[in-house]
Design goal:
Layout: E1 4-11, H1 17-37, E2 41-47, H2 61-67, E3 91-95, H3 106-112, E4 115-123, H4 125-138, E5 142-151, H5 155-168, E6 172-174
Parallel strand pairs: 1-2, 1-4, 2-3, 4-5, 5-6
């Protein structure tokens, strides 16, 4: 295992303000600090679409719904900024698709730091967290999902992913308090 791990925070999809605040407070108050103290690279991933719509795929209703939700998901609006404490050594990645790897420099940053494993937290468990974790595994990263660092619009869907789907894909699922583990 490399001496670095990365934690990807993808709290951009807002099924409810309460869910995002709960995940953000959990991640900001303890997990990011624990990671930094253990020498782990902290990566924040934020989602935004160009206000012109230039990055919308034709016939992609999901992205079009985000775009048409007003300025909430438009690059430059307050809702697309990282709303957690970002330290000097942290990395912020701008994502325009479900996976934090798709069309970003995340893989480049992680490989430059010799990172071999990621731990994912964010909203929504069944969408952005899942897409990023699948993509990470396809790229050869070991994947951990922080169970109580994720949320979904439907708590039953969240539980299904962390109890069944992620372990079935070989991903480790742990509570925030148990991560990072010193190996």
């Amino acid at each position: 295992m490399s001496r670095f791990q990365a934690r990807c925070q993808t709290a951009w999809w807002r099924p409810s303000v309460a869910a995002v605040r709960w995940v953000a407070s959990r991640v900001a108050c303890s997990t990011s600090s624990q990671a930094r103290a253990a020498g782990v690279l902290v990566v924040f991933v934020r989602f935004a679409l160009r206000p012109s719509g230039a990055d919308l795929l034709p016939d992609n209703e999901l992205h079009r719904s985000f775009f048409e939700a007003g300025d909430t998901f438009h690059e430059g609006s307050a809702g697309t900024e990282v709303d957690l404490p970002v330290a000097d050594g942290d990395v912020v990645v701008l994502e325009r698709r479900a996976s934090a790897f798709a069309g970003t420099d995340l893989d480049l940053v992680l490989r430059a730091r010799d990172v071999g494993a990621i731990a994912g937290a964010g909203v929504a468990t069944s969408a952005m967290v899942a897409a990023t974790c699948y993509d990470a595994a396809d790229r050869g990263y070991r994947v951990t999902v922080l169970r109580d660092g994720c949320a979904d619009g439907d708590p039953a869907v969240h539980d299904f992913f962390v109890d069944t789907v992620f372990p079935g894909r070989g991903f480790e699922v742990v509570p925030c308090a148990d991560w990072p583990r010193v190996r």
